[in-house]
């Protein structure tokens, strides 16, 4: 199964957009497992040092919010 983990924080000014982006992608990719992980409540792997961080199947694909088109392209490729 394809898994997208997205690390966010309460004090992150762009993480509201992150949440909207993830919600949009959940509608487009119902077979992908999406996890929004709050950095205050989740042990962080070494590769997460900024928020938002997008991790697709264990690999960082974006520091900061990607465009909807780029994220959709990466999710579609991961499902292929």
Structural account:
It is built from 2 helices and 4 strands; from the N terminus they run E-H-E-E-E-H. The longest helix is centred in the first third of the chain and has 14 residues, at 15-28. Strands 2-1-3-4 form a 4-stranded mixed beta sheet, covered by helices on one side. It has helices at 15-28, 68-79; strands spanning 3-8, 33-38, 53-56, 59-63. 32% of the residues lie in helices and 26% in strands. The chain is globular and about 35 Å long. The chain has one domain: Glutaredoxin, CATH 3.40.30.10. By secondary structure, it is of the alpha+beta class.
Q: Say what the CATH topology is.
A: Glutaredoxin
CATH class categorisation:
Alpha Beta
Q: Report how far the terminal alpha carbons are from each other.
A: 11 Å
Structural class: alpha+beta
Q: Which radius of gyration do the C-alpha atoms yield? A: 12 Å
């Amino acid at each position: 199964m394809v898994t997208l983990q997205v690390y966010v924080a309460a004090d992150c000014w762009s993480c509201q957009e992150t949440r909207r982006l993830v919600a949009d992608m959940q509608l487009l990719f119902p077979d992908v497992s999406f996890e929004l992980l709050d950095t205050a409540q989740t042990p962080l792997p070494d590769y997460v040092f900024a928020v938002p961080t997008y991790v697709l199947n264990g690999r960082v694909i974006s520091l900061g919010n990607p465009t909807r088109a780029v994220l959709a392209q990466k999710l579609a490729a991961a499902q292929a």
